[in-house]
């Protein structure tokens, strides 16, 4: 039974790994947004169930992803948009820290809402513009 569970987990992990291997930079960014949102959702569930270790682990992972998005910004060429995103990603990280420390699901939901808004804009970039960059 343990072997079957291990193989099932390997199968589940293979899909995202295969997608990452062939994804263009635009899709990779989409995957980062999706990953952060998923981890925040799991953290929120863990918070509601009182599972402190899982909550902390998933919030930390979400913050790592947000830091990765922040680190990918080109502040020199990105102008005001990049600067605003940088400040927003910093704010999100601080809200996750506060939400974790105070067990505030509202803080996690706020960050999820912000991430979904940014992701929606990212998803709306026309295909021609994706290829141009």
Order of helices and strands: HHHHHH
**What characteristic shape results from the CA principal axes?**
elongated
Can you tell me the CATH superfamily? Flagellar protein FliS
Low-confidence segments: none
End-to-end CA span: 48 Å
Roughly what is the average pLDDT, rounded to an integer?
87
Domain count: the total is 1
CATH class: Mainly Alpha
Report the sheet with the most strands, covering strand number, pairing sense and barrel closure.
none
Please give the number of β-strands: 0
Which radius of gyration do the C-alpha atoms yield?
Answer: 17 Å
Helical percent range?
Answer: over 70%
Any chance you could write out the topology, listing elements then pairs?
Layout lengths: L1 H21 L2 H25 L2 H20 L7 H24 L2 H19 L3 H6 L1
Family: Belongs to the FliS family.
Pfam families: FliS
Keywords: Bacterial flagellum biogenesis, Cell projection, Chaperone, Cilium, Cytoplasm, Flagellum
